[in-house]
Amino acid sequence: MQALDAKYRTLYEPLYAQRKAVVLGADGGIPGFWGTVIEHHHLMQEEITEKDQGVLRHLQEVAWEPLVEEGKEGFKLKFFFEENPYFDNEVLEKTYVMKADEDDVLEEAVGTEIAWKKGKNVTVKVMKKKVKKKGKESGPPITKTVKEDSFFNFFDPPDVAALEELDEDEDEEAIEQLQDLIEEDYEMGCCFKDEIIPHAVRWYTGEAYGSEDEDESGDEDGSEDEEDSEEYSDEDSEEDSAEDSEGEEEEGSNDEALKGRKGKKGKGKKGEQKEQECKQQ
Description:
Blueprint: H1 2-23, H2 33-40, H3 50-56, E1 59-66, E2 73-81, E3 91-98, E4 106-111, E5 124-131, E6 139-147, H4 162-165, H5 172-196, H6 200-205, E7 232-234, H7 237-244, H8 255-259
Antiparallel strand pairs: 1-2, 2-3, 3-4, 5-6, 5-7
Helix pairs in contact: 3-7
């Protein structure tokens, strides 16, 4: 499998280089290209929030490479960012290590720890609660951090090794939940490697969409958990919203045509059955 991946990767390399030259061109390139590509993918758009969109505008390139460590198989994803107001990292990586001599059995997934700038972490929400004391002035507010849904949780993957620590008889539900998280995370990684990176232009223009299923559930709006919303206020939402307001046909097709096209975003929804499965080549 790794030999086959390497073969196709070699064939695609000249096209990747040509695409990168257009996207980052001296004439301004194609701003927001990779953010649009990811948002258009039916699986990824389930994970992307409004705050994530502001961060993804600064994504300049996505690439993958096979693991070259002796005795290990797997692949590494690389996300290259320009200097931005959200974090200090120039590259975020996600590595999938497969068990030796076992086909498609994941041993470990490792992501880059993101060095978020103060108040810019889109994976958490800082909440404040006023303290009321009877007959006394209010004291300093109590703050707590609540984990948020975010595409960037992709770089903090579930612990595969934790499966072995759970008791199959006593922790059946916990095992099933963890297995689901691990499978979903690995599927996202394979989608980047097998679908998004090789066919980014088609995802950008919308040509890669499935034919007719994207709009089936577009009228239903999910609701998010509003727990503690009456007592707590979101500390950084106004600052983030102000920041967010700033601003190849197959690979190798006519470069000028690429700049003039941008497909409509499909309608996906978290929790729904996925329209297609990403398969590792």
